[in-house]
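Allow me, if you will, to draw on your knowledge of protein folds for a short while. I have a record of one protein: its chain in single-letter code and its fold written as discrete structure tokens. Could you please explain, in whatever detail you think fit, how the structure tokens follow from the sequence? The record follows directly beneath this note:
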Amino acid sequence: MKRPSLLLLCLPSLAAAGCSGGDMTESEATTESILASTAETDVAAAPGQPPAAALDACADLAADAACSISIDGHSIDGTCRRGPGADDPLACAPAHLPPMPHRPPREALDACADLAADAACSISIAGHSIDGACRRGPGADDPLACAPPHLPPLSLGPPREALDACAELDADATCSFAIDGHSIDGACRRGPGAGDPLACAPARLPHPPLPPREAVDACAALPRGSACDFDLGGQSLGGTCWSPDPLAPLACAPAGAPIP
């Protein structure tokens, strides 16, 4: 079963900025287990919403305030974070979040394990050989990962335009930036990580269903518009790397799917 509560708590439009790869710590594993269990109980809210306990914990608090929730007898400390939508409520986001599917693939991390930033690198994913350069995400502790040379250094997180728009603004301030010829109005939001930077998140960001992990992994190291393929339910599907939201990770959209 999918965990929409964890999706929103990790702020999907900014999640790539704060959810890094690697093995889970004991604390992260505990959080993973607790959050997974809420999806099967009445603690979880409607799809696309964090658990009621997470909302109640921040009902009388301000953004970035310390908070604590109790789920299934476990106490979880975190910070009050707001979703990407202008009307999204504050919710208590755990201080330790498990790795998310949009983190750099293990191959990309391993390729730069012994290299310096901007060093040339090469990885092989799904039978494709990709040359690139070692890039670091926007977080202070983000690891180096091999990214294709035609992607900007922060391609694994919010685009540079979204970060620049909030460089001199406070959290929740209105902002605007242009990307791919589109002007986007929004509000400055911070990812779930303590060191995550502010970025301009669209004011009206829908909560579409997550694409399957296989579709996201197929485009993890590919640019928008690239041909891609993945296996799902015993079927091999070919398509194009695409996402309706410039802040969200790319996913392999099967041939015939509507792409503007």
